[in-house]
């Protein structure tokens, strides 16, 4: 299996000024988190080149503690009822994710495209290499747990079930970055911006309606 994935733009290029920190970056598919940094088609620093890539063994089972924690998170309960549909009834989910305990981003997990897309309100802070490194628990562990618990087979969404039939073996989620979103005007609004991104995305509302100047109101 080839470990290097082609970097392909997800959206057409827009020459638009970002709100806050410079121009917006294009939404791009990042390289697999298990690719040797020396093979990546981008400029890397000496520290990047010397870094040891994460160990990836597709034959290694998921630790039972990880499985238990995941099942505890998604299992139905009286306390959780009304907050979200069972995962077997959806093809896309959104949630906030903290990168190295210092920056929040919005994540979209698409079970049909098999992608983990990042919505980042502070692209000047978050490099592609950081996303690849800190999203391994999502791109690898979450994908592995879902695969091992036969999530795709149990799905009630036909296109998700069809995707599972096309995957003959475990595949990590492809990490994507969608930075064509409003940018925060300070260094502390990432949490509120992330919540607003998720709120708008889950409701099908354009993210351009999120106004960074209204943080106090939000």
TrEMBL record:
In terms of domain of life, where is this protein from?
Eukaryota
Give every Ubiquitin-like protease family profile domain span: 1-201
Q: Which residues form the signal peptide?
A: none
What are the BP-aspect GO terms? Answer: proteolysis
Pfam families, sorted: Peptidase_C48
Q: Does the keyword Signal apply?
A: no
> What's an example of a GO molecular-function annotation for this chain?
cysteine-type peptidase activity
Under PROSITE patterns, the record lists:
ULP_PROTEASE
Identify the keywords attached in UniProt to this record, alphabetized: Hydrolase, Protease
User: Member of which family?
Assistant: Belongs to the peptidase C48 family.
Task: Report what the protein is called.
Answer: PREDICTED: ubiquitin-like-specific protease
């Amino acid at each position: 299996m080839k470990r290097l994935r082609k970097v392909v733009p997800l959206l057409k290029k827009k020459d638009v000024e970002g709100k806050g920190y410079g121009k917006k970056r294009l939404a791009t598919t990042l390289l697999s988190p298990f690719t040797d940094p020396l093979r990546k088609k981008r400029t890397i620093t000496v520290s990047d080149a010397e870094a040891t890539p994460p160990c990836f063994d597709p034959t290694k089972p998921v630790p039972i503690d990880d499985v238990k924690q995941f099942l505890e998170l998604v299992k139905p309960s009286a306390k959780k009822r009304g907050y979200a549909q069972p995962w077997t009834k959806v093809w896309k989910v959104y949630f906030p994710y903290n990168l190295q305990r210092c920056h929040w981003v919005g994540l979209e997990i698409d079970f049909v495209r098999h992608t983990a897309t990042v919505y980042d309100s502070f692209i000047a802070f978050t490099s592609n290499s950081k996303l690849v490194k800190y999203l391994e628990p999502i791109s690898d562990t979450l994908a592995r747990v879902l695969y091992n618990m036969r999530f795709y087979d149990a799905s009630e969404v036909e296109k998700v079930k069809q995707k599972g039939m096309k995957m003959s073996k475990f595949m990590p989620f492809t990490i994507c970055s969608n930075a064509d979103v409003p940018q925060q005007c300070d260094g502390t609004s990432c949490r509120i911006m992330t919540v607003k991104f998720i709120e708008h995305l889950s409701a099908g509302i354009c993210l351009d309606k999120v106004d960074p100047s209204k943080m106090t109101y939000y």
